[in-house]
Amino acid sequence: MSQPDYLQPFADCLTQSSQWLSAQAEAGEKHIGYFCTYTPVELIHACGFVPIRVMGEPGVVEQAYSLVPDFICPFMKCALEKALNGGFKYLKGVVQGYTCDVSCGMANIWKENIPGELYHTFPLPYTDAPATRDYLHKEFQAFIHKAEQAGGEFRLERLQSSLDMYAAIRRSLLSLYQFGEDGAPALNARERHIVVQAGYVAPPDLFLGMLEALASQKPFNSRESQAGIPVLISGSLVESVGVFDAMEKAGARIVADDLCSGYRNLLPVDGSGSGPMERLIDRYVNRFPCPSRCRAENRFPLLMDRIEQTGARGVIFLIQKFCTPHLADIPELTRLLKAAGIPVLVVEMDESWRMGGQLQTRLEGFVEMIDGMYGTNHGKI
Amino acid sequence: MEKSKKSTKRLAAAKELNKVVGEYYLECAAAKEQGKPVGWMPPMNGAIELFYAMDLQPVFPENWSPVCAAFGLTPKNFEVSEGMGYSRDLCGYLRNIVGYVNGPMTDPAIPLGGLPAPDLLISPGGGCVPVMKIFHALERRFPEAKVFKADLPQVALEEIAPHHIDYAIQEMQRLITFLEEATGRKLDQDRLQEVAALSDQACALWDEIMSYRRSIPAPFSAAEIGIMFVMVTRQGTRQAIDFLIKARDEIKERAESGTGVIENEKLRLFWDNIPLWYNMGLFNYFEKANAVVVAETYSAAWSIRLDPADPLKALALKSLMSYPLVSCVSIEKRKEMVLKACRDYAIDGVVFHRNKSCVPISLGQMDIRKALEDELGIPSVIFDADHMDARNFSTAQFQVRIDAFLEMLAERKGQTFKT
Ligand code: SF4
Ligand code: SF4
Fold it and tell me: Which segments of B184-269 does DSSP mark as H helices, in order?
């Protein structure tokens, strides 16, 4: 699909990053992959590596089944398929925060099967206490040691500037979620998705430059249409922009998200502390809660805040099939949301990422149901 | 073969197990009546010993699930949790226990008296996601229980460093403070040492019991792995030791006198992943080809020795090690462990249960399988099932796969076996 000019660099980045990154790798750049946004990218960067988020390519999974069962999420299956097909040759390894069991196991399966020099899983704490922070400090130091053995080089000043750079990126991305005076967000969900995803596969300094160029072009001319029932989508990773189109086609308008490939990764923008290490630790113990690391009831007030801020009328859980953390939270979150008068729909995606006819019908039914609840104003806010 | 079948027991110890299981659950129920604080916790951690040392009652919801499967309560529990919106794709332990506590728990007709409601919940951060989510659901179901929000680094065995151990020790200390405050009981250090020593002795006995399975013919098979019950629920008690000594003596005697599980043992098998609790009879299926399952991955989780001189550190280490020992946190170590077991137990073939209810154990199986072939030339077979949900198990598929496998193994050894 053709893009407005200001989006083209981001769309190009998504389609061409493999080539760029491969060329950069040949020129000596060291890229490290990560699956989950609980991974301290600033630290990896400060060790002299470029963190790149591993994402799959929706489609048919074949080869990966020689290494993993079919009952794991499409994200991990597609990513492994791509890796086995040589799609991540530019990576020097995978560094991963332990979030779910699949990402942990997968990091180990990559280590066994995809050649690389640096593999590491951060056993991240679940609580925030002085002992926790002290522990995390030592954990980060242990990683630095390992990274240096794999050819990295850590400098505290560089950590300071990496923290600044990633904070600037997050701040800038967050502004794309803010609403303008006319009540519409700066970009619509599809456009925002393209921008945010590009950030995962572009080196951060380059990406920051792209965001600055984007900001200079405000106001954008593709304001979100006012039509459509405003909804919030919640889940892990969205790998195909097509799902946004399908939702829109069904009459929904995505005004907010709770996705690890979206809004959830942006908060907090930064951590605070007396030095760069403390700042880094502070951010990672205060991450916006993800179901793999917290209770459903801790997520609920945050979802309600987003719903109130954005005027969402319903929640669509857009789940990767088999994703345990999300599936396990859904019963309680659904109960709480429904009790608060918010309708809920659960949509599970397989590795094709296609919204088939049946799903489309369910989406349409959901949107109509909300529309009915709000009488004649057709969900407009 | 029926879809659900109990295994054939040959050990007297296995028969005595029914008594041991019954006594444990009676003790749980009695604790409540006697005003002894009851705490629910995941089984693989050092909190068990602390509980016994402080004369508190530990209860293990994960372990209750196999009991539910054995008594046929599982389908009802699934119905309840699925009705609440829990997906069929979630681990069966989670669906079973959530269904049980929100459904038949209050039914007076529940076998073994059911589980007493918790006064304390040792709610884990760490371990697998399903077990963490089980406890979140329990916190909701039992709002009056006092909750300890535990934290533990999920770190591969080969990566355990001093700062992980220090953190785990600090967590142990935090747990002790919580228990003391919540129950008004004081931990006696001497008693803790004693309990740690008992726990270590149980592990030593367990290792000894396992070592007799190296004998050819094997004195007992996976069909009787239920004897592991005391390792799960009774770590640090005299009851565990008494039971294990009896089991050890019987097994030793069988090994020394050459009494095998079957008369004519020809093939020795290794089983990876959790058994099908609703169909333990599967372990006898192999016997028609004179094959015996002589070792499993799962039983290795209980071979963690404890240094009673430093019980806190020992328990911290146990907490750090037991889950990674059998899960995908440590594929490298698990591979080593399976390969070593295959050498030690003279294994001819490996049966991989690809378990829809346990992603952490099922991930990495293919790498282990490859290493078995490449390094030891040991063939293996994979079949799909589920340790709790009989709906995810096809007897026909199992039989076809296993028959072909056994035939191939027999041929390799120059034997004749035709299905
Ligand atoms: S959280 Fe869910 S979607 Fe994300 S890696 Fe884990 S299983 Fe997959
Ligand atoms: S069976 Fe596996 S997934 Fe389920 S609770 Fe146990 S370790 Fe976790």
Answer: 189-211, 229-233, 238-256
Q: Give the type of residue at B98.
A: V
Distance (Å, whole) CA A285 – CA A287: 6
Q: What is the pLDDT of residue B123?
A: 97
Q: Tell me, what's the pLDDT at B9?
A: 81
Query: Closest approach of chain A CAs to the CA of B140, in angstroms?
Result: 9
CA–CA separation, A269 and A22 (whole Å): 30
pLDDT at A220: 77
Rounded to the nearest whole angstrom, what is the distance from the C-alpha of residue A128 to the centroid of ligand 1?
Answer: 23
- pTM of the predicted model as reported, rounded to 2 decimal places: 0.96
The enclosing H or E element of A253 equals strand A252-259
Residue of the nearest CA to atom 2 in ligand 1? A323
SS3 B294: strand
- The residue among B145, B87, B336, B402 whose CA lies nearest residue A329 is B87
* Residue A75, token pair as written in the block: 């994200």
Contact B1, B285 (CB under 8 A): yes
- Cα–Cα dist B286/B279, whole Å: 14
Contact A315, A234 (CB under 8 A): yes
Q: What is the model's pLDDT at position B416?
A: 77
For residue A322, what is the nearest residue in chain B, using CA coordinates?
B89
pLDDT digits (tens, 9 = 90+) for B135-156: 999 999 999 999 999 999 999 9
Q: Output the six-digit token pair for B372.
A: 């078995």
* Model-level ipTM above the cut of 0.85: yes
Least Cα distance to B234 among B23, B73, B12 occurs for B23
Name the region of B187 (left: φ>0; alpha: ψ -120 to 50; beta: rest).
beta
Distance CA A16, CA B193 (A): 62
Most confident range, picked from B37-51, B90-104, B317-331: B90-104
* Interval between CA B129 and ligand 2 midpoint (Å): 8
Alpha helices in B142-214 (DSSP H): 162-183, 189-211
DSSP B116-140: PPPSEEEE-SSS-HHHHHHHHHHHH
Question: Measured at the alpha carbon of residue A4, what is the angle toward residues A2 and A5, in degrees to the nearest 5?
Answer: 110
CA dist A286 and B212 (Å) reads: 51
Residue B264 has pLDDT above 80, yes or no: yes
Mean pLDDT by 10 residues, chain A (381 residues): 85 94 96 96 98 94 97 97 96 94 96 96 91 96 97 96 98 88 77 95 96 87 73 94 92 94 94 97 93 95 95 96 98 98 97 91 96 66 43
Cβ-nearest to B151 among A127, A139, A330: A127
How remote is the C-alpha of A102 from its chain's centroid? Answer: 16
Q: Which of A53, A100, A351 to mutate to test the pocket of ligand 1 (most atoms within 8 A of CB)?
A: A100
For residue B345, the CA-to-ligand 1 centroid distance in Å is: 37
Is A289:A298 a contact under the CB 8 Å cutoff? yes
CB B365 within 8 A of CB B335: no
CA–CA separation, A167 vs A185, rounded Å? Answer: 21
CA distance A277 to B335: 36
* Backbone phi and psi for residue B338, each to the nearest 5 degrees, phi listed first: -65, -45
In 3D space, the residue among A326, A342, A100, A335 whose CA is nearest the CA of residue B140 turns out to be A335
Task: For residue B7, give the nearest of B244, B274, B216, B222 by alpha carbon.
Answer: B222
Q: Are A135 and B130 within 8 A, CB to CB? A: no
